[in-house]
Prior knowledge:
alpha+beta; carbohydrate binding; CLec_Tetranectin-domain; growth factor activity; disulfide bond
Amino acid sequence: VLVLKEKIREVGEKMLASNGKRVDFASALQSCEEAGGALATPTNEEENKAILGIVKQYNQYAYLGIKEGEISGQFKYINGMPLNYTNWHRYEPNGKGREKCVEMYADGSWNDRKCNQYRLTICEF
């Protein structure tokens, strides 16, 4: 239990956890699903701050459960729902269809990024 104390965070109705591993987007998605959860997806400022806490703890950027849809520049939650909260870094998203995934920087802001980069896996339950 003590080992998990620093690894799990509660925010609202969600529990957030990370295994500390850096993988590509597809692998992060799969890891979270296999664990019975989903890739961490901030739907408000409080959740964004909780995910940021884990990003800072591991000092690594993390993928979020957000992807670009069929329309270039239009991002959605991985369940297909439109975003109801965003925290884009200044001048982002700027990938114009080439950067389909979203990562969180160490200041909590978001950047669109190619899905083959290795980023921290953070799951929500």
